[in-house]
Amino acid sequence: MSLTPPTKDKEPVFGPLVLVANNGCDASDYPTNVTGSIAFIRRGICSFGIKSENAGKAGAIAAVVYNNVQGSLAGTLGQPSEYHVATFGISDTDAELYIKKLQAGSAVDSSAYIDAIVENIGTTNIIAQTNAGDPDNCVMLGGHSDSVSAGPGINDDGSGTLTLLEIATQLTKYTVNNRVRFAWWAGEEEGLLGSDYYVSQLSAEENSKIRLFMDYDMLASPNYAYQVYNATDAVNPAGSEELRDLYTDYYEAYGQNYTFIPFDGRSDYDGFIKNGIPGGGIATGAEGIKTEEEAEMFGGTAGDWFDPCYHQPCDTVDNLNLEAWEFNAKLVAHSVATYALSFEGFPKRSVVNQDADLERSSYHGPQLVV
What we know:
elongated, single chain, alpha/beta
């Protein structure tokens, strides 16, 4: 798991594997013999961070979370806690044999080891906005300026941040009726840290001035599809669906295909929509597999990732589809121009939710949290 602490003294630890009751979300789920043992916990209900914290409070020397659906399991513990223990994820298939043994009363001797460093360090968001325009009607857009440690992140998210920089530069040649605010977020890959912090610091008054937030993350995937977050007003702040339709109308106007993708918390829009601010965005795909139908719609290779270099060292300047990037950059410019001129017909801001449930989604950033 990302953001897991190391095993004690950064050395292997040894102990019996102990099956935790239910989903490990309550202290009562942990039997007394978890102390000095490795806790074996089912995924579900609460975050991985809470499971690890509960295991640590119960005296476990490590924790293993097994998937409750088919497939392997990786995620993040999120905000570090002094009670977190070294935590790992395994698939449902790998867990099955051990669950049967433990339920039958058999002992399972286990060991765990990970060398890791988890610490808090300072980092910086960069925010820039126009001098002109109505400050009570703010158009906001952003991309993240960090990459994973494994690679340079030129598509993820250099493509988004450079698009914002170019549009901000060109916008100086024009007048705007509404204030336009650009954000280059820090710490997205570690769990949307920069954008979450920014939204958390807004007063109710400043929150209400942001009419919408547009997220631009990965706009030039080499095996691209034109993807639009399926942000509906039924489950998101009013106005999210109108923004979604602006994107689809643009693709249709230029004879381009598009697909809808889940609006599930995987990028920096998450803190905004959880605090009452309409949101949305576009992307071109990450580690998802392109289908045969999508290959017919957009070209490229079915069966491959949209970005075969996602979170890898090869995410360099050679990992960009320039045609897709240029088209999407023009769409980003269109979205800015549209709302910088007018919010006519766009829903008024209403509820400001400053007690947002941060565990609403399975994702909070690029990794699973639940």
